[in-house]
Amino acid sequence: MAQTVPSKIGSTQQARSPAETLLSIRNLRTAVSQGEDRFDIVRDLSLDIFPNEIVCLVGESGCGKSITALSVMRLLPTPPVRAIGGEIQFKENDLLTLSDKEMRKVRAEDIAMVFQDPLTSLDPVFSVGSVMTEVIKAHRDLDTNTARTMALEALQEVGLPDPEKRLDSYPHQMSGGMRQRVLIATALVLDPDLLIADEPTTALDVTVQAQILEMLLEEQRQRHMSILLITHDLAVVAGVADRVAVMYAGEIVEQAPVDELFEDPKHPYTQGLLHALPHISVKREKLIPIPGVVPPPQMMPPGCRFAPRCPYALSRCWQERPELEINAGRPLRCFNPQPFVA
Question: What are the contacts of 219-225 at 24+ separation with CB within 8 A?
Fold first, then answer.
């Protein structure tokens, strides 16, 4: 029985040609060095994001989702973590080859990022207004008053209560939801083409999560921008995504339009994630967890990285590494895809 999919809030899903690609990641390899040893955190990752669409990158904690985002933004803690291979093509530029000065211009103006924890992302000794005006002035030749007006308008647009007062507030004087709205306003104030949102609702209660997601979707519709949303919450994915990329142990294992992925997941890991998701229409005595944990970078199995946790692993899965190839009508990294039974 196919799992019922929650109705999607908004969709720009349509056929795309490669020439339309806004961000194209090809064979990205990001590694961490420990002494003389080096271990891959992200390996041979390829992902396209088109204009005016929402792509969700999903997977358990430790799968490399945030490292992928930081690789795109060139914000990795180097050393010890470094992007050592592949290309990240944004419009006409390979971001991995840009100078630091050129990359600083790309950040905020073209690609902006909202981080997971709003409290640690905001400097406690600076007011909201001072941070936002400095961001604006770093990219626009504007005086402080004009930049402050832009900051106020951005706070109003994201629905922050009493925005004039909050311009002079400090992070500790606001709730978690208010701080997250400040981060989103700061990210959007220069009207980027791509917003990367890394678990933007994790630290918020359910009601505030819904408000933040609806606000992000409204901003995406109005600005016609693209969003790369990183999350482990499949309910969020079902509600906002156009396409989904499932990530496990540093690799993309499956990609599909959101409706197809929920109705007919092919990879055993994707199926495991959906089996662990409670759903009112599926009668089960208990949820079905995925046994084991994501392996650390220094202990990856030699073949398929999911083989130690996979109920369908073949003998070749323990020795050979599957490539991400078109299989069963979609990009899939699996030797033994199975029909999905909810």
Answer: 219/157, 219/158, 219/184, 219/188, 220/10, 220/52, 220/54, 220/195, 221/10, 223/188, 223/191, 224/51, 224/52, 225/52, 225/191, 225/192, 225/193, 225/194, 225/195
The residue to which tokens 């002079």 are assigned: 168
Q: Is pLDDT at 67 greater than 90 in this prediction?
A: yes
- The reported pTM is 0.91
Amino acid 277: pLDDT: 80
For residue 26, give the H/E element and its range: strand 23-34
**255 with 330: CB under 8 angstroms?**
yes
CB 44 within 8 A of CB 29: yes
Give dist(CA 322, CA 208) in Å, integer. 40
C-beta separation of 31 from 40 below 8 A: yes
The number of angstroms, rounded, from the C-alpha of 11 to the middle of its chain's C-alpha atoms is 17
Q: Rounded to an integer, what distance in angstroms lies between the CA atom of residue 177 and that of residue 33?
A: 36
Neighbours of 163 (CB within 10 A): 22
For 179-198, how does the pLDDT look when each residue is reduced to its tens digit (9 = 90+)?
A: 999 999 999 999 999 999 99
pLDDT value at 235 more than 60: yes
Q: Say how far apart CA 283 and CA 194 lie, in whole Å.
A: 40
Domain 1-13+20-110+192-205+218-342: homologous superfamily in CATH: P-loop containing nucleotide triphosphate hydrolases (3.40.50.300)
pLDDT recorded at residue 17: 61
* Domain ranges across the chain: 1-13+20-110+192-205+218-342, 121-191
Mean pLDDT of the residues in the chain: 91
How many Cα atoms within 13 Å fall on the side-chain side of residue 134? 7
């002494």: which residue's tokens?
A: 35
DSSP 37-100: EEEEEEEEEEEEE-TT-EEEEE--TTSSHHHHHHHHHT---TTTEEEEEEEEEETTEEGGGS-H
